[in-house]
Specification:
3 domains, six-stranded mixed beta sheet, pyruvate-formate lyase- activating enzyme, alpha/beta, Rossmann fold
Length: 438
């Protein structure tokens, strides 16, 4: 049986796309293997959110070429306005996002005799990156399949918000929402496969139901104003045996009903929000076109943390945006000392051609960006320790994901996103168990 592997760069929406590609190939008679193994077909699902992501994508493709008979590039970087094009090596097959569902037909058209096990002997030491399931930057689709622990479910696609630093609206396309009747069969299939947690993903989850097609449908059904929270509630009520988690979500248009659902269904909807802030300076937020103030964000975060039992908050921080000053950094640092974040995804601003921010004056020098990233990461690590300590001795529902390095221990993710290591054996992998946080 011919084999394939998938390397994913970027967000959880990309990881969800990789799951779909893997599903299509398995249905077509291909066997999925891990990134550490040889594969007949190597697929790189690209991210194009920064110029660095494009460069890294090209590097990954060259590494895959040393291991695989056929290499395919897909994802945002291969869209019409994606930035991967200048980094794609000769011989790589391109499958843009619009052609993802046709990937089997495209492979067949290559007329390449893929012989299982046919590899150059000197490929044995190739260094393709291993999977990092939840890093948000690199992941292998097989990591979701092998242990049947956590699956991703895309419920929304596209964005029309147009943040000044972001190319995603130009490569992900217009808003599109998936209704419950489309999602329920997929959820049922994932439950039957053994997944105990499903993560709702999308380009801009809070905009679910805002696309023209959905608005017309809701009007016809007499449910105008239906929101992402209404979808989540329907999926909770029509399923059982699985818990749901919300992936990254923006504060713009955030449906507060989600907080009520977390309180009403504590075993079904995880009390965790990755509520994206990007910065704390109102001046920088306005330049980013984020459409909220720090006061508004902080009020929403406080409502979540104070009203939802066991609530845990994580976020993204973008540093070095054009015009960012030390005063802006001081505002950000003060904010991060006030609000208890368990994890910060900190990254430096990278000029992305085709976005307004790339043409802005006062670009911040790279050494200053690096120093600011270091400062905020240090603050985030201290905040994470404090948040974890606040939960010590409490009982949480932990999804066991892997054996720990310590013999006789396993590790997993609690409902509120705490990373927990505790005494247990490998038979627990894939199960949700009650654990007293050590």
């Amino acid at each position: 049986m011919p084999t394939f592997s998938i390397l994913t760069l970027g967000c959880r929406a990309n990881q969800s796309d990789s799951q779909r590609i893997a599903e299509l190939l398995r249905q077509g008679g291909y066997e999925q293997v891990g990134q550490e193994e040889f594969a007949d077909i190597g697929i790189m699902n690209s991210c194009t959110v920064t110029a660095e992501a494009d460069r890294k994508g090209g590097q990954m493709l060259r590494r895959l070429q040393r291991k695989c008979s056929l290499v395919i590039a897909t994802g945002c970087g291969t869209a019409k306005k994606g930035g991967l094009w200048d980094h794609i090596p000769e011989g790589v097959v391109i499958v843009p996002p619009s052609e993802r569902e046709n990937i089997l037909r495209i492979i067949e058209k290559q007329q390449i005799n893929i012989t299982v096990g046919k590899r150059a002997a000197n490929d044995a030491n190739s260094d393709v990156c291993a999977s990092k399931e939840d890093s948000g930057s690199e992941a292998s689709a097989d990591s979701f399949v092998r242990h049947r622990t956590r699956a991703l479910l895309k419920v929304q696609e596209g964005c029309n918000h147009m943040c000044t630093f972001c190319i995603v609206p130009m490569v992900r396309g217009p808003l599109k929402s998936f209704e419950a009747d489309e999602l329920l069969p997929k959820i049922d299939g994932l439950i039957k496969e053994g997944f105990k947690e499903i993560v709702f993903t999308g380009t801009h989850l809070a905009l679910w139901g805002r696309d023209p097609k959905s608005k017309i449908l809701f009007r016809e059904r007499g449910c105008e104003g239906r929101s992402f929270a209404d979808l989540v509630e329907e999926l909770i009520l029509k399923t059982e045996g699985v818990r749901f988690r919300i992936s990254s979500i923006e504060p713009m248009s955030f449906p507060k009903k989600l907080l009520d659902l977390m309180k009403a269904y504590p075993d079904r909807l995880c009390p965790h929000l990755h509520l994206v802030v990007q910065h704390a300076s109102d001046r920088i937020l306005k330049a980013m076109h984020r459409d909220y103030t720090l006061e508004e964000y902080e009020a929403l975060a406080a409502e979540f943390l104070n009203s939802v039992p066991g609530a845990c908050l994580t976020t993204d921080i973008l540093l070095g945006f054009p015009g960012e000053t030390e005063e802006d950094m001081e505002i950000l640092e003060a904010f991060l000392r006030r609000v208890p974040f368990y994890h910060l995804h900190v990254f430096p601003y990278s000029r992305r051609q085709g976005t307004p921010a790339a043409e802005m004056a006062d670009q911040v020098p790279e050494p200053i960006k690096k120093e600011r990233v270091r400062r905020i990461i240090a603050l985030g690590e201290e905040s994470a320790r404090q948040v974890y300590d606040s939960f010590r001795g409490t009982e949480r529902a932990v999804l066991v994901e892997r054996s720990a390095k310590r013999p006789g221990y396993v590790s997993g993710t609690a409902d509120n996103f705490l990373s927990v290591e505790f005494e247990g054996d490998a038979s627990l992998i894939g199960e949700i168990v009650k654990v007293k946080i050590p």
